[in-house]
């Protein structure tokens, strides 16, 4: 049933004409739009039956930007804008001439990337530095992210409301974003800007308003629609988030399951809005528990530690400001982040000031006191202290200059890092990024001071037909950042890439990217050079499949020797109908066996399949496999198989039941996780979970030895309750 047309009682084609008639500026991005201010807020139900939507400012004329620019969908998209003193509202009408092919699941938050969805990319300061990105699929299920410095952070969870309805000519979505959930200017009127996006899953097509200029590529900050809000409330935000958790952890000790933790715990987090753009967070014994354990990764034959993303809520406010320029500048770049808050493992308290001062200055100040594990108390004391200070000054367009200072202080080692960075727009399609950093590591017991430096600069240009990048980087051997994530030091890198993009006049091959990359790395410790060179071809095939084939000729220096790491890789992603999608990747490679410094070769396979047998039942299976053989005699060194299955029953948008089973053939273990979760809004939650780890081991009276049956080696149970009070 078409709820929208039923409410109005008029034919669908006439309704389309009426909407277009009420949108005289459709397709034109120019002066600031002034949304309709309502005294009566809409009911967020996905049915656009409120009278004021007829008077609201609306925009249309969406054009594609992926896989190509400037193409029109065969059906229309319209977005309406409205607001009141405390909220801003958006409504989408997404016409579709094949509504039965709209992909829309009922899933938990942040799991809709494969669906049909709409997105409001909101620059709440209208200064081209950061974005709130709020997504909703055709059922109104939410996803939200924070975008800054070229990075989109999925860990953000805002309080906002949405609903969607599929009908016989497409779907509608309504969104309500409370102003207390975002940061915006203290000035009057409040100026924001937005980039409205729609994704059609069956054709893998992204369309937007305003239309993007192909000569500017995906540099959308300078191409957004400005919006003027008059007479909104500049609030003094106060949020109080108490939480209570009970947890039990048990572990096998000498053949018996022994409790290692069995206690209730409580925490309190307070958020205070000094202004609408400057926020103070404070937490005592904060609840940093994760509802879902990190997915398993291959942890054998590693040169570097594994990277796990940050998921804990306290760190998310202002976290985007800690991103610095010229990180991740090429496939060879070992610098992932200078502030990776997963290094703060078990904090007892924290405080943070983040936001904007004036019209151009951003600031983020973080302090956390982290408990040191008891086994390390003699070396480092009971606590490590993490003070971090970040300042950014926005410049013209989306350029900025910034400084960053980080510290880790305890009774054993004091680590300090400081320096400057920036992003400078050279022209409408080209950005220059740089950083210059110094570190100092002071050993309190030996009174030694080890200093190091890191320098980086890269230029990236992105247009419709061509993308290219060049980068230079040096990280000295003694550069140490205990707050960051850096794979490798003692190197100098020079790299460059060029990617021509072709758009054949074909219904099958919609776009072809040819990627050429070369990079030369000098290992300054051993005074040896290594190289990475690749040629890749990426195809957009039809509407649902993308393939990539890549050949690498590469070498790597390890322990003063040069090893061959060349290989050939194939990757494919795709969807089938509205209930199935997946990705597979296979690589035949040469590789190093690090423990023995041996030249090896082997295979790497990774695959993931997602299937929805029912709209509310989600299944997912992932497979990871690696093996390695000695190049000298073809003897197998190891193989590693990791299987992970996940089943989620989403009873409604608030409540789900989930089970995860992971089998690790290399470790001969099986882990399971069961969870019942209710989330009304972020912060107001109830979770109850149980999990255990079993291994093929047995206790022989003196030691654990390999066995034929699974034995539960660890168990855990937790209950968590928290409630968000927003005043």
How would you describe this protein?
The strands form 4 sheets. This protein has a 24-stranded antiparallel β-barrel. Strands 3, 6, 7, 8, 9, 12, 13 and 14 form an 8-stranded antiparallel β-sheet that branches. Residues 1-22 have low confidence and may be disordered. The radius of gyration is 27 Å and the shape is globular. By secondary structure, it is an all-beta fold. Helices cover 3% and strands 58% of the residues. It has 3 domains: 3-229, Immunoglobulin-like; 307-499, Beta Barrel (Porin); 503-643, no CATH class. The chain is built from 3 helices and 42 strands.
Provide the structure class.
mainly beta
Please report the first level of CATH classification, the CATH class of the largest domain. Mainly Beta
CATH topology of the largest domain: Immunoglobulin-like
Helix content: under 10%
Number of domains: 3
The stretches of 5 or more residues where confidence is low (pLDDT under 50) are 1-22
Tell me the CATH architecture of the largest domain. Sandwich
Overall average residue pLDDT: 90
> Whole-number radius of gyration?
27 Å
Distance between the termini: 40 Å
- Tally of alpha and pi helices: 3
Range of strand content: over 45%
| Principal-axes shape call | globular
Number of strands: 42
Largest sheet: 24 strands, antiparallel, barrel
């Amino acid at each position: 049933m078409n709820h929208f047309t039923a409410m109005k009682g008029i034919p669908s084609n006439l309704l389309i004409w009426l909407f277009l008639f009420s949108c005289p500026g459709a397709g034109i991005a120019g002066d600031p739009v002034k949304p309709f201010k309502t005294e009566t807020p809409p009911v967020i139900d996905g049915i656009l039956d409120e009278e004021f939507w007829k008077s609201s400012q609306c925009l249309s004329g969406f054009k594609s930007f992926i896989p190509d620019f400037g193409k029109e969908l065969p059906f229309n998209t319209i977005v309406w804008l409205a607001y009141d003193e405390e909220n801003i509202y958006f409504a989408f009408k997404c016409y579709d001439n094949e509504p039965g092919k709209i992909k829309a699941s009922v899933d938990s938050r942040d799991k809709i990337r494969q669906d049909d969805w709409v997105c409001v990319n909101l620059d709440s300061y209208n200064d081209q530095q950061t974005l709130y990105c709020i997504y909703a699929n055709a059922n109104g299920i939410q996803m939200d992210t924070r975008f800054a410095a070229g990075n989109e952070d999925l860990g953000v969870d805002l309080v906002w409301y949405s609903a969607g309805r599929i009908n016989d000519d497409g779907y509608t979505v309504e969104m309500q974003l409370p102003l207390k959930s975002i940061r915006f200017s203290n000035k009057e009127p409040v100026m924001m800007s937005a980039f409205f996006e729609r994704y059609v899953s069956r054709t893998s097509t992204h369309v937007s308003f305003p239309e993007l200029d192909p000569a500017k590529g995906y540099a959308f900050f300078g191409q957004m629609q400005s919006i003027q809000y008059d007479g909104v409330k500049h609030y003094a935000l106060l949020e109080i988030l108490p939480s209570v958790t009970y947890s039990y952890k048990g572990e096998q000790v000498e053949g018996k399951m022994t409790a290692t933790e069995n206690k209730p715990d409580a925490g309190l987090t307070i958020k205070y809005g000094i202004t609408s753009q400057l926020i103070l967070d404070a937490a005592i014994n904060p609840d940093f528990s994760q509802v879902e354990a990190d997915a398993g990764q291959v942890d054998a034959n590693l040169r570097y530690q594994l990277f796990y993303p940050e998921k804990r809520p306290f760190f998310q406010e202002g976290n985007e400001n800690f991103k610095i320029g010229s990180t991740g500048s090429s496939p060879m770049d070992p610098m992932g982040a200078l502030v990776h808050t997963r290094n703060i493992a078990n904090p007892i308290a924290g405080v943070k000031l983040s936001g904007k001062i004036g019209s151009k200055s951003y600031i983020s100040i973080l302090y956390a006191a982290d408990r040191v594990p008891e086994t390390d108390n003699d070396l480092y004391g009971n606590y490590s202290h993490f003070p971090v200070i970040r300042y950014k000054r926005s410049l013209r367009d989306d350029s900025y200059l910034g400084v960053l200072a980080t510290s880790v202080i305890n009774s054993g080692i004091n680590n300090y890092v400081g320096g400057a960075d920036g992003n400078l727009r050279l022209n409408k399609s080209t950005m220059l990024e740089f950083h210059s950093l110094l570190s100092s590591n002071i050993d309190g017991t030996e009174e030694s001071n080890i200093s190091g430096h890191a320098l980086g600069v890269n230029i990236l240009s992105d247009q419709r037909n061509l993308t290219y990048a060049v980068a230079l980087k040096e990280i000295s051997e003694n550069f140490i950042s205990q707050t960051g994530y850096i794979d490798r030091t003692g190197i100098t890198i020079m790299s460059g890439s060029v990617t021509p993009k072709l758009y054949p006049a074909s219904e099958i091959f919609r776009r072809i990217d040819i990627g050429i990359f070369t990079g030369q790395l000098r290992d300054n410790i051993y005074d040896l050079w290594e190289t990475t060179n690749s040629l890749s071809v990426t195809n957009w095939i039809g509407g649902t499949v993308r393939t990539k084939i890549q050949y690498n000729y590469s070498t790597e220096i390890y322990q003063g020797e040069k090893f061959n790491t060349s290989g050939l890789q194939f990757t494919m992603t795709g969807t089938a109908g509205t209930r199935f999608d997946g990705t597979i990747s296979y690589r035949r490679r040469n590789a190093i066996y690090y423990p023995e410094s041996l030249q090896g070769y082997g295979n790497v396979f990774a695959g993931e399949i997602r299937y929805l047998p029912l709209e509310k039942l989600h299944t997912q299976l992932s497979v990871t496999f690696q093996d390695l053989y000695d190049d000298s005699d073809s003897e197998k060194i190891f193989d590693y198989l990791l299987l992970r299955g996940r089943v989620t029953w989403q009873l409604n948008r608030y409540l789900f039941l989930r089970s995860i089973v992971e089998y690790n053939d290399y470790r001969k273990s099986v882990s399971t996780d069961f969870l019942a979760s209710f989330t009304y809004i972020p912060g107001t939650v109830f979770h109850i979970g149980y999990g255990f780890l079993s291994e093929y081991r047995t206790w022989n009276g003196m030691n654990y030895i390999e066995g034929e049956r699974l034995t539960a080696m660890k168990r855990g149970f937790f209950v968590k309750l928290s409630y968000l009070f927003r005043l």
